[in-house]
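Whether sequence alone determines local backbone shape is best considered at the level of individual chains. When preparing material for the folding task, we compiled for one chain both its residues and its backbone structure tokens. No coordinates are needed to read the tokens, only the vocabulary itself. For completeness, the protein is quoted in full, as a sequence line and a line of structure tokens:
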Amino acid sequence: MVAARTMKTITASADVARSAQEVFALVSDAARLPLWQPSVDQAALEPPGQPSVGARGYEVRRVQGKPRTFHWEITEYEPNTVFSVRGTDGPVRAHARIACAAIDGGSATQVDYRLGFEGHGIGKVFAVLARRGARKEVPASLALLKQHLERSANPSDSSR
């Protein structure tokens, strides 16, 4: 029997004045990850296509000012509801889960974001540093997600 690993998880939530379909379409589109996660320069599914459980992708993220490529796999995909990925390589592997729930009669969405890190070898030390940075980055990313979606929802907003 293998002992279950416990992972310290960073969590944050935000209410977004857009439908769950609109929010989910953005958070589950790897190519649009840089819109709401400022440390991500590029991301994509490999090969491009519709997200689904088992699909793989990558992101190029700035870590301590340097670009690093991380590969991941979609582990949960329920349209308009849940999107989860887990890192598949490197000494520190992220496990991210975003859940969307309609509120206010469907005109808004509660977004719950959970992020944990699994360290392998020397990555156990680096996972501590990754968690420390993520404590600030996760709420900031949700704030950008909210800002981006709500700004684009306003037809009179000319700053798009």
